Amino acid sequence: MKKTENSGAGRSISPVIPQGVEVAEFEQYLDAVKFVDRIVSGSFPAAFIAIVGSDLKTVERLRGRVSYARVALSGLVTGSWVGLIFGLLFSGTSEATTTINYSSLASSVILGAGLMMLINVVRFSLNPNKRQFLSSSMVIAGKYVVVVPHDLADQARKASEASPVK
Fold first, then answer.
1. CA separation for the pair 79, 88 (Å, rounded)
2. What's the whole-model pTM score?
C-alpha cells in the first residue's frame, strides 16, 4: 500500500502529476502565474493550485566563446578573491598597531591569482571534451495548465472572474 497524500493541503509525498480539473491554459508561464495570482487574491486556497507544464523542450542558449584568455581571466578573478580571503585570515597584525600588513596581503592576492590562472589553463588544455562556447540550458514547456481539485473547480473559476485583471 503506497501512501501519496500528505495531511491537509493535498500535497504529495512522492512526485506525481496533480490530478484535478484544468481551469485555464496558457502558452507562457508568466500568464499562468498572473492567473494564479488573480484567483489567490480572490481568496482561493493557494495550496490546492498547481501549474503543470507539458510538451517540454530543452533550450540551450550560447553566452560566448571560450578561449585560453577567457579561462585565464576567470582564474585570475577567482584566485584574487581566494588570495584576498587567505591573506586576510593569515596575515597577522602588528602588536603595536592594529593595521594589516598590506605587502603580505598583496602577495597573497597575487599568488592566489597566479596559481588559479595556471590551474584553470592546465585544466582547460587537458580537458578532452572542451567546447568552444559557453552556454546555459533550461527546460521550457510548450503549454501550461492551471489544475485544481475537482471539488474546487467552480470556486476557482468564480475567483478568476471576480478578481480584476492586473
1. 14
2. 0.56
